[in-house]
Amino acid sequence: MDWMAWTWPTAAFFATIAALLVVFTVLAIRFPETPRMGVLRIETTRGDRLFITLLGSAFINLAWLGLVGQAQPAALIVCLIYAGAVFRWV
Amino acid sequence: MTDATVSSPAPTRARSFPKVNSRAVVMAIYLIFLLLPIYWLVNMSLKTNNEILGSFTLWPRDLTFANYVTILTDPAWYMGYVNTLIYVVMNTVISLSVALPAAYAFSRYHFMGDKHLFFWLLTNRMAPPAVFALPFFQLYSSVGLFDTHIAVALAHCLFNVPLAVWILEGFMRGVPKEIDETAYIDGYSFGGFFVKIFMPLISSGIGVAAFFCFMFSWVELLLSRTLTTVNAKPIAATMTRTVGAAGVDWGVLAAAGVLTIVPGALVIYFVRNYIAKGFALGRV
Amino acid sequence: MNKTVNHKAWFLVLPVLVLVAFSAVIPLMTVVNYSVQDTFGNNQFFWAGLEWFEEMLHDDRMWNALQRQLMFSGIILAIEVPLGIFVALNMPKSGLWASFCLVLMSLPLLIPWNVVGTIWQVFGRVDIGLLGHTLEALGIDYNYTQNTVAAWITIVVMDVWHWTSLVALLAYAGLKSIPDAYYQAAKIDQASRWKVFRYIELPKMAGVLMIAILLRFMDSFMIYTEPFVVTGGGPGNATTLLSIDLVKMALGQFDLGPAAAFSIMYFLVILLISWVFYTIMTNLDKKGM
């Protein structure tokens, strides 16, 4: 596994994503997903909204990095607001 | 406006003469545009290098098959074809055997995360090989599979497995579900039903999926070139490495190109009605 | 088709999952790992944080490649889609002549990509190619290895040659699904040819055309082999599209960190487009098109 060059931060990053997936799977088993129509005029389930959130967060972080500079905690706050918006309205 | 110019394109209608002509002319021009470059390649492969470089001729004055003979007798060339064939066939077999049950599951059942899984497969079909070239190189070097056929075959699974799943799912959803249910009532096990009843029903789908797996693995250059050096070097890499060196052997290069086109051209007639469907991942 | 809920279907999907995880997830994780580190070879890595991302985002190199890429994708879509529709409208509907056209039109689609490159590389050469030679004889300065405009024209024409048939075949499939009655009604209403196209043919083709546009956009967005064989990204960097640039960086210079950061951003864009593609496809399915 040497060639994969693992580091603690990246391992933590993937662990977080894996944990999110597990949490949403458990949620989906406990409370079955019902698709709904949101502001994007497409049907989304909880899992879809998670995907939109994660992908959007990646772009927010990149934009922050390019425009503001290395201040990711601040970008993460923006991401959380974005996540809230996605889960509420999309 | 008069009817002559307004006449509809419906086939059953009696078509006015000039109309037929304009359609035929458009098609003829388009087909010539498509065929001319291919003709030029074939033309060059049948010339000697002297004729290619020395004089500009529209057809071979001095017809020769020496270029083809070179390729079929020189191991440096024909081993390229052998290597390519080996990993392409391996890849097609692997892709189809894992994709068949998966496509069945996607076409027949709802299960936890099915849509997300199906989407995830699509992203792999769409992912640029350039992104994967470097990690693949590291991965297969570290497990000692570098420069082997199986490494390329597995690497091509990245886009061919999703492709096969999507195409097969497209064909399978056209098969009514009642057939499955009747078979189970008749006492077939899942395996027996799948092999004896279901697979013959979607045989054209399997053929198309196999064809496209073969095709995409056959045409892929970047990963196969990155993962091989000598023992499993594909024909595409042999061809691109010849280019750029001073004094390219144009005749042999053209002949190699023609021979690489042959497998696709041979089956083209049989798949002609499914080509759009295959490229569109079974969605048309 | 109404599907039944059956979570055991997971076992049928498992082999695909394992295989694709091996060939997609592990490499992607590796790319993420590389993107935050620096290396001097020998598998010795040093933490670099988000430096590479910041560097790439402020580096003109990636933006220029992206700009060229978008220009390329835009140009080929603007040519291939209308041309494909036009060809499809002129294709014969049935009979031997239709089969003949189908077979010949499919031919470029099935030619290995590197050979497509070779064909145009040869065809466009001034000394031995029909196209280059003819243009030269007409007094046009055309040398795709030195002239930027000529290089661009060559790769665009090559892509049009290679893929227009796909758009045409998809549009043709859409056209064939239009019942004759529609045309007869249009005839009774004395609709003009344009109106027949605008109100009957185009709406019926909309679904397949959407697929065609998205497919062509995706595939042109990751194009590598054909322009690489023809121009090698040159002259200079004039035809260095995203994939070509990435390969140069990753395998040519072996700059693991920056190349990995580049890869991730590239992949994110692809992910976004794939998602749009998938959403549109499933919505079309629901409408039954």
TrEMBL record, chain A:
Keywords: Membrane, Transmembrane, Transmembrane helix. InterPro entries: DUF2160_TM (IPR018678). It comes from Salipiger thiooxidans. The keyword Transmembrane applies. This is Predicted small integral membrane protein. The chain crosses the membrane at residues 6-29, 50-67, 73-89.
TrEMBL record, chain B:
Signal peptide: none annotated. It is a multi-pass membrane protein. Gene3D superfamilies: MetI-like (1.10.3720.10). GO terms for biological process: transmembrane transport. The keyword Lyase does not apply. PROSITE patterns: ABC_TM1. It holds the Pfam family BPD_transp_1. Coiled coil: none annotated. The keyword Transmembrane helix applies. It is found in: Cell membrane. The chain crosses the membrane at residues 24-42, 85-106, 118-137, 149-172, 193-219, 250-271. Belongs to the binding-protein-dependent transport system permease family. This is Carbohydrate ABC transporter membrane protein 2, CUT1 family. It comes from Salipiger thiooxidans.
Automatic annotation (TrEMBL), chain C:
Its main location: membrane. It is a multi-pass membrane protein. One of its GO terms (biological process) is transmembrane transport. The chain crosses the membrane at residues 12-36, 70-89, 96-115, 149-175, 196-218, 259-280. It holds the Pfam family BPD_transp_1. GO terms for cellular component: plasma membrane. It is found in: Cell membrane. InterPro entries: MetI-like, MetI-like_sf, Sugar_ABC_transporter. This is Carbohydrate ABC transporter membrane protein 1, CUT1 family. It comes from Salipiger thiooxidans.
